[in-house]
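Input set for joint prediction.
Command: fold jointly, output tokens.
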Amino acid sequence: MHPAPSVILFTSLSGLGFGLLFWLGFGYPGVTGGTAFVFFAIAYLLAVGGLMASTFHLGKKSNAIKAFSQWRSSWLSREAWLAVISLIIMGLYGAGLVFLGTRWTLVGYVGGLLSLATVFSTSMIYAQLKSIPRWNMPLTPALFLSYGLAGGALLSGQIATTKALLLVLALVQVAYWALGDRALITSGTSMASATGLGKIGAVKAFEPPHTGTNYLLREMVYVVGRKHSAKLRIISLLLVAVLPMACLLLPFNHLLAALAVISHIAGVFAARWLFFAEAEHVVGLYYGKR
Amino acid sequence: MTTLPTGTDRKLGLVIDLDTCVGCHACVISCKGWNTENYGAPLSDQDAYGDPSGTFLNRVHSYEVEPAEGAAQLIHFPKSCLHCDDAPCVTVCPTGASYKRTEDGIVLVNESDCMGCGLCAWACPYGARELDLAAGIMKKCTLCVDRIYNENLPEEDREPACVRTCPAGARHFGDFSDPESDVSRLVAERGGFDLMPEQGTKPVNKYLPPRPKDKLETEAPAALPAVATETTGFLSWLDKTLDRLPGGGAN
Ligand code: SF4
Ligand code: SF4
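tokens >
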């Protein structure tokens, strides 16, 4: 799939933002007043910034409001609702902390859980697609949730929890790559099933339907840069988990903490780029590509 | 509404005969011609006189299929929306623009609701939907919904433009819910099949397999017998010298 900057920004930033909101909702860290304001401002900038980025790739932005209409069937629609509701509830909860210095525990719990549900619904937009076997796995929501929880814990400054969650994140990410590499083969979709000609013999693409490129090839048969994927996987794992972990294991220091955060966010971008660039859409089979 | 109907009164769709299709792309052109000037936004082209790319609702691939024995076959393969019964493109749509009609099963996009997110094109395993870059909305085969019921057209024209145009008679239009319809009988007689059945989309359109080919003479002609066995003179010397060079002929 085409790794469009708008979707990479959207999923990475809003994942971090809603991850942080989850922890804030549960009172980690238990801040009030000005400090709470800073934490909530960061979370809202990330979450709202990500959501705004997601509208950049829309062909007709004037119809975007209609995306709230199909929550019964569409994960994208559910995501829109969950995002807005969590932002409202967490805004209320945050206002209590910042301006009144009171913590409405129940409101925080509900808002926190809804924030996590938002991350889950983002992941389901991708995980529901049978046409992209690498995404169509239970590990996809697990991956998004571990990114949200670990990134949120790091941003909320909980060192012990972050260390444990970074480990979980690294394991889920490696498992996702390992299973993902087999997903297209095990899905059973092949050039033979795509054309139905496998009964006659080995099918080879002879001539494509068009001499130039088209929307399908640009959007869904993105093969550029896949050859570097092994290297990028290592780099993203180092940035997202190993380096932040090393920073947190050393005696605490603000510079190291900042380095951990910067490294983690860079790693999230790299991993999310791979999430899209490596995903094979079965339509590629009609072109003899994967 | 982007929930799918539990059933449709009729199931309109196409049968595509892979035995008869000659790969002329006439259906592609007539489709683009009709659909760019009738229902909905036109099918735009970008950089038509440079590095062209454009929106098409129907495209013809060509495949080479090599059987275990015998000669390879060239098979032309038109592909457009299959109007799936279990259409994943419909249920993912957040705006309600994509829907499947209860009366005839046609899958359509309501262009005034579409926000051009492209998720439905991702969900379709067949590549049957293309986002028009000029209009910013999703385009797909409508089964020529503005022809098939159009009483302003002569009766013989009330079928999809691709079917009407195909010079080889490789495309057939009809109602699959009626077991006696031409399309249902064709599918039954010729062993019509689904594309990517494992994707669970339950396509309405069916493909007819190429008929078995006549057996071609696969033995290569026998080598010509040598006329002269013993040779002399310059040409003989040249022949032997060339033979001795690396890669020279052995006979
Ligand atoms: S072929 Fe694709 S676009 Fe058409 S109904 Fe099926 S899934 Fe939807
Ligand atoms: S591109 Fe349009 S029709 Fe397709 S899912 Fe998005 S809003 Fe629905």
